[in-house]
Amino acid sequence: MSTFRTLDDIGEVAGKVVLVRVDLNLPMQDGAVTDDTRVRAAAPTITELADKGAKVLLLAHFGRPRGERSSTQSLSMVVGTVQDVIGREVMFVPEIAGDVVRQSIGILRPGDVAILENTRFWKGEEANDPELVAAIAANADIYVNDAFSAAHRAHATTEGLAHVLPAFAGRSMQAELEALEKALGKPERPVAAVVGGAKVSSKLDVLKHLVGQVDHLIIGGGMANTFLAASGVDVGKSLCEHELAETVKEILANADTSGCTVHLPYEVVVAQEFAANPASLRTCNVHEVDAGEMILDLGPSAVEALADVLKTCRTVVWNGPLGAFETPPFDAATVALARIAAALTREGSLVSVAGGGDTVSALNHAGVAQDFSYISTAGGAFLEWMEGRELPGVAALSH
Ligand code: ADP
Ligand code: MG
């Protein structure tokens, strides 16, 4: 990973106009914010800059307005939440460039915070249009990117601005990059990856990259069925991508050459119908799945074997639940292995990094989220990082 500048390198900001790209794409219901996690993640950067006397202008997108103003997607709706979280007044500016922004900056005092309008109201945002970039930059002195979750997009406010203004990583971006570097950049070995979730097809590039990086690849979830089927196991009516058999064999062959041990489940939890606590529920060896059954979770002995693997490791990076965790009891394996990883992390023998939308829900459900070394809420950007890709928003901060 290349190096990047942080707020420690930013110098004097008193009286300067600092554009801070944050993630304010908040979950909402009936016009009210239902979860302020992303605002809390951005708060340290906002308050640090404001406390140093900067005029802080927040830039963010919300939803997919596709280059047009939309009254239901205005960032004016999140002003109250941001005020509550950072504990100071926040001004709303219904533009991102031009005279209105310039006049608003004139009203702001050093240490004041404003939110500019949804960047995706302008077509130039997603097109990374140099004219829009120049117009936004014209009102500002410094650019700070604190939105790792948007760093896989080369948009005007996630990438373009970093080329025309002095650019720095915010505290949340910094924490994310440092955690990911520890997990996959220069990890302490042995390192294990846990990859689960529904489908191999959605994570092919992740699997291909990981086999060259990690010592142990633990496969769970629906994608384990595809691996098992490719290895000649009859998985009954399990969710399975039979057409990917050749691809899976290639991945297994590459793992072999790279010295990566792939762990597939040998014991599974099956049922004839997908429902909570079904009457047909049973645990069996992978070779004993009936034609009318589907694999919905890993069995307890399989989880114990995986726990033994984690005990020999110093680092684990985890994406994807091991079973259909939303429906009990198919959450059991995910919860059990997550608790093992959490305990090893508490003992100081394991660095544990996890990410992915459903993975974060599953770890919260297991009650271990606070025990992991780092949990990324970045979804798409986290997966692209696991694919070994350079994220444009991060690359633009490097020097
Ligand atoms: P993430 O959002 O963390 O990247 P995914 O979206 O890839 O994770 O996968 C999560 C989904 O995979 C969950 O909805 C879960 O129910 C499903 N899943 C896991 N194991 C199975 C299985 N054996 N059969 C069907 N679905 C499964
Ligand atoms: Mg998901």
Fold topology:
Elements: E1 17-21, E2 28-29, E3 32-33, H1 37-51, E4 55-59, H2 79-86, E5 90-93, H3 99-107, E6 113-116, H4 123-127, H5 130-137, E7 142-145, H6 156-164, E8 167-169, H7 171-185, E9 191-195, H8 204-210, E10 216-219, H9 221-230, H10 245-258, E11 261-263, E12 267-271, E13 282-285, E14 294-298, H11 300-311, E15 315-319, H12 332-347, E16 351-355, H13 357-366, E17 374-376, H14 380-386, H15 392-395
Parallel strand pairs: 1-4, 1-7, 4-6, 5-6, 7-8, 9-10, 9-15, 10-11, 15-16, 16-17
Antiparallel strand pairs: 2-3, 12-13, 12-14
The chain binds adenosine-5'-diphosphate (ADP) and magnesium ion.
How is this structure best summarized?
By secondary structure, the chain is α/β, with parallel strands linked by helices. It has 15 helices and 17 strands. The chain binds adenosine-5'-diphosphate and magnesium ion.
Keywords:
399 residues; alpha/beta; six-stranded parallel beta sheet; 17 strands; 37% helix; elongated; binds adenosine-5'-diphosphate; binds magnesium ion
Describe this structure in words.
This protein has 399 residues and is of the alpha/beta class. 37% of the residues lie in helices and 17% in strands. It is built from 15 helices and 17 strands. The protein has helices at residues 37-51, 79-86, 99-107, 123-127, 130-137, 156-164, 171-185, 204-210, 221-230, 245-258, 300-311, 332-347, 357-366, 380-386, 392-395; strands at 17-21, 28-29, 32-33, 55-59, 90-93, 113-116, 142-145, 167-169, 191-195, 216-219, 261-263, 267-271, 282-285, 294-298, 315-319, 351-355, 374-376. The strands form 4 sheets. It has a 6-stranded parallel beta sheet, sandwiched between helices. A 6-stranded parallel beta sheet has the order 11-10-9-15-16-17, with helices on both faces. Helix 5 (130-137) packs across helix 6. The radius of gyration is 23 Å and the shape is elongated. Bound molecules: adenosine-5'-diphosphate and magnesium ion.
